[in-house]
């Protein structure tokens, strides 16, 4: 069964790159470029996992993550961000309880392995 991954990032180049990598590995990919678009699409698209950027205009990834958890507590969410400081990782993984914290730039193999692990939870 094909797993559906939602990519949420305000950078079209990042979305296109991640989409290309995941689609060539057999994943179905849906996209959102803002937090509000992500939240609207969750009900209709029902993804198996979300890759969520932290730094976005209007509503940042932390706020989107909190709203996802309020409604979809079992939906795996990985933060996908350039914020690579230990404090950011600790906040994402241990305070907010994201399922993974992937920093940009990332390698193709690492991204695919981590997404597979995310959907196999």
Would you write up a description of this structure?
- The chain has 121 residues and is of the alpha/beta class.
- It has a single domain (4-115), classed as Rossmann fold (3-Layer(aba) Sandwich), CATH 3.40.50.
- It is 47% helix and 19% strand.
- It is built from five helices and five strands, in the order βαβαβαβαβα.
- A five-stranded parallel β-sheet has the order 2-1-3-4-5, sandwiched between helices.
- Helix 2 runs parallel beside helix 3.
- It is globular, with a radius of gyration of 13 Å.
- The two termini are 15 Å apart.
- The mean pLDDT is 88.
Query: How many helical elements?
Result: 5
- CATH uppermost class: Alpha Beta
**Derived structural class:** alpha/beta
The structural domain count equals 1
Give the H and E element order.
EHEHEHEHEH
Largest sheet: 5 strands, parallel
The CATH architecture assignment turns out to be 3-Layer(aba) Sandwich
Proportion of residues in helical segments? 40-55%
The total of beta strands comes to 5
Q: Which stretches are poorly predicted, pLDDT < 50 over at least 5 residues?
A: none
* Largest beta sheet: strand ordering: 2-1-3-4-5
Shape: globular
Keywords for this structure?
Rossmann fold; globular; 5 helices; alpha/beta; Sig_transdc_resp-reg_receiver; transcription; 5-stranded parallel beta sheet; two-component regulatory system
